[in-house]
């Protein structure tokens, strides 16, 4: 049995650890609220962007020939953009993204396709480097608080690979935020951009008919050629915000569980310490009694 001094040191160590996990839980909770606010502010912008693209797309049929909308006859190479975090201590947040990315790679290779990885986040980059993978792009240092410029860098690189013919498709793998307790691994096709965004429902067609025809300056093709990269950036930025909120939610949950486990361990160690102290006192009493009997 461990001595009272050893148990006391362990209790003190676990209490200090619990202070750290509680502090990390509070920090993650505050960051989660900010991340949720950013997601809510992003939604109207994303919806307006989609409506704008659909409105311009209805003006001309030739816009479907734009590079980012073109469907390849044969998909030979797929880019997998794995969006992980820069830090750990977030439960299964990073591991489930890495597992899904490698699972997707095995599936694609089984179909005879080549795979190129784009790593977003230090955890994903380090795992790919450890396994000997070469990446088509690496982006780190911002995953907990992403800026729009970060999304622009990622989207520009993926679009560049697609336009130059180095890849035929791009898939984004990230954690979608559902609640602080639930993060869902999501696969989203980034490129080619689905032609569905050019479609509209019957109600919008009636509204357009009531408003009459539009005169575009410059031409719809040129306008859409500028809007599509922005739409791609918007999709990446939304995924970054979702991932940031998911990371903070996962970290908050993980630190809460760690604090709870630390409390249970402290109770167990305290009980063991009290028993050890009682055993020492009992032993001392027995020694005193034995010594007294020896003198009589």
How would you describe this structure to a colleague?
With 296 residues, the protein is α/β, with parallel strands linked by helices. It folds into two domains: 57 residues, Helix Hairpins, CATH 1.10.287.80; 221 residues, ATP synthase, F1 complex, gamma subunit (Pyruvate Kinase, Chain: A, domain 1, 3-Layer(aba) Sandwich), CATH 3.40.1380. The protein is built from six helices and five strands; from the N terminus they run H-E-H-E-H-E-H-E-E-H-H. The chain has a five-stranded mixed beta sheet, sandwiched between helices. Strand 2, helix 3 and strand 3 form a beta-alpha-beta unit. Helix 1 packs antiparallel against helix 6 and helix 4 crosses helix 6. It is elongated and about 115 Å long. The relative contact order is 0.18. About 3% of the residues have low confidence.
Which tags fit this structure?
Pyruvate Kinase, Chain: A, domain 1; Helix Hairpins; 296 residues
